[in-house]
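User: Sequence recovery, please. Input:
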């Protein structure tokens, strides 16, 4: 895209966006050492922490189940591997001047709050990227994880005007 700015009608600014598992992947890429500078990073309804070791209470009982799920789906079978693939642990480079938009639905899993909090909590990622200088915008739009994209225009219009 950078080599074809005239053809694309681009001014060269880059925006990285990912939805669901793409939000997880986009956040890992945006935080990687070789990533370019993005005008904005837009993460929609992603999973930003795979760590289970510090879970307490009832969650502690679920840790082996989530560990197995993360292992089967993502190949992260140890706590060290889960931490390495957790975007909230990967914010090590400076992010000053970048806008990070973290979008989540009102009820990601339609009334399963414990699982919503385990899978879709955004607090630790938002804190981590803010600590590295990013300006974080947490936005709630849409009813659930699957219908969120039907209401994405509520976010996209004002976002595009800001760019």
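Assistant: Recovered sequence (163 residues):
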């Amino acid at each position: 895209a950078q080599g074809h700015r005239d053809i694309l009608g681009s001014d060269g600014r880059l925006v990285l966006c990912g939805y669901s598992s793409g939000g997880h992947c986009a956040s890992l890429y945006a935080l990687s050492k070789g990533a370019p500078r993005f005008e904005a990073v837009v993460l929609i309804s992603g999973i930003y922490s795979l760590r289970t070791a510090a879970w307490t209470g009832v969650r502690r009982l679920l840790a082996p189940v989530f560990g197995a799920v993360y292992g089967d789906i993502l190949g992260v079978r140890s706590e060290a591997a889960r931490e390495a693939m957790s975007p909230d642990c990967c914010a090590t480079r400076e992010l000053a001047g970048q806008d990070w938009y973290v979008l989540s639905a009102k009820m990601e899993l339609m009334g399963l709050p414990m699982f919503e909090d385990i899978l879709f909590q955004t607090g630790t990622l938002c804190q981590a990227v803010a600590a590295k200088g990013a300006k974080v915008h947490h936005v709630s739009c849409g009813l659930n994880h699957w219908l969120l994209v039907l209401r994405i225009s509520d976010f996209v219009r004002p976002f595009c005007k800001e760019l």
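The CA atoms of residues 40 and 160 lie 11 Å apart.
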